[in-house]
Design a protein that fits this description.
111 residues; mainly beta; N-terminal domain of TfIIb; SH3 type barrels; 2 domains; three-stranded antiparallel sheet; 5% helix; Protein PhnA; YjdM; YjdM_C; YjdM_N
């Protein structure tokens, strides 16, 4: 029996083949048969200007951001040094004024 790949989105194991695509019944994600997992692993995270970001870069906020669950507001122009890239919706981890934050790269520009 052919070994089916796991879903690249949710890592579900109940994937089935539907013609030209693989389908995950858990999250309804579909992907082409010829797409390899290495393409997902090589995902390039870009800032608001389209510049690629890497671990250790410094970035600047381009917009005031309210922090959920607190009264803190991160001001436009605040610089975050030594960022770390992660998977997920908020793809940049950094420290600003000694506090850790997870930010979206669309609100950052490379310094």
């Amino acid at each position: 029996m052919e070994q089916m790949p796991q879903c690249p989105q949710c890592n579900g194991e109940y994937v089935y083949h539907d013609g030209l695509h693989f389908v995950c019944p858990d999250c309804a994600h579909e992907w082409a048969e010829n797409e390899s997992k290495t393409q997902d692993e090589e995902k390039i995270i870009r800032d608001s200007n389209g510049n690629p970001l890497q671990d250790g870069d410094s970035v600047i906020l381009i917009k005031d951001l309210k922090v959920k669950g607190s009264s803190i507001v991160l001001k436009k122009g605040t610089k975050a040094k030594n960022i770390r890239l992660t998977d997920g919706d908020h793809d940049v981890d950094c420290k600003i004024d000694g506090q850790s934050f997870s930010l979206k790269s669309e609100f950052l520009k490379k310094a």
